[in-house]
Each structure stands twice: as structure tokens, then as C-alpha cells.
Amino acid sequence: MKKILLIVSMFMIFMIGYGKGKPLDVNMENGSKIPSFQLRDFNGKYTNSKKIFNNGKPTLLIFAAEWCPHCRSELPDIQKFYEENKENVNVVVVFTRRKTNLSSTKKYVEESKFTFPVYFDADDSLMTGFKVKTVPYNIKIENSKIQEILGGTMQYDAIKSAFYVE
């Protein structure tokens, strides 16, 4: 009986350990394919990244934080770009949990009246997987492939230029 309990226990530990899947690890070179992952919105609803990145439109993926002065400078330009180009370009803003929480981030987005799609990296897996060290961090993606690392703070004209929008 003890052997059966031991075997069942070991099996359960094995299943729990592997049930989480392997962590996201993105090759951050231009042209690299991005593995599928889940984006969690502010209400806890999950969206598969492929649904966004493979919809025929290029994507501007931004990592940001509500406490970051550079993000606070960039995000109004992102909002303007989104309003003018949402039919042709996906905009995805992922807010980090570093130095903050979901409640503070939600409040900032609501007060700023941002309407672009927002997500929250509650466990830091996206920031880690994309190897993001500082915010804001901007990436141009098309068909689940990194087209260009746009880097830090961008202004409206630079965003338009990156997506060949006039």
C-alpha cells in the first residue's frame, strides 16, 4: 500500500510541476518568431497572442508602467496613433506589475482615458520572456515575427514612420 501511495504521490508531483508549461522565452532578434502566449486584461480575461499578432495587421507592442515618466510622456501619443490607425495597426500595451499593482494601473488608464487595448503582466512572465529591462519598450510585430525593436520612448511622428503611416 505504501508503494502505491508513493507512486501516486510522485505522479501527482510530476503532473503539477509540468502542468504550468515552460516559461515564455522570446528570441529578440529581428525576424524571430514569437511563441504563442496569453495576454491578461485588467478584468482577468485571457487572449491568445496569435489572435492579435496573426490577424493580418502589424502590431505595436508596448511594455509600460503607470509610474514611469517616459511612459506617461509616450502613452498620449500612442493613444493618438491608435485612434487614427486602429483599423490598420494593432496596438497592445502591456503594463508591468513592477513597483505597482493592478489597481493603481487601472486607475491611471481610466483617468488618462486611454482606449487602446491594455493588459497586465501580473506575474512578470511577459517582461521576462521578452527580456524587457526598462519601460517604455516598443516592438513592431507582424505575423507573430519581430520586425523591429523600436526601443524606448517614441513620439507620435516616429510611431507613424515606423508603421509607414502618412
Automatic annotation (TrEMBL):
Gene Ontology MF term list: antioxidant activity; oxidoreductase activity
PROSITE patterns for this protein: THIOREDOXIN_2 (PS51352)
Upper taxonomic lineage: Bacteria, Fusobacteriati, Fusobacteriota, Fusobacteriia, Fusobacteriales
Residue ranges of the TM segments: none
InterPro entries assigned: AhpC/TSA, Thioredoxin-like_sf, Thioredoxin_domain, Thioredoxin_ResA/DsbE_sf
Annotated signal sequence range: none
Domain Thioredoxin: 28-155
Protein name (database record): Alkyl hydroperoxide reductase/thiol specific antioxidant/Mal allergen
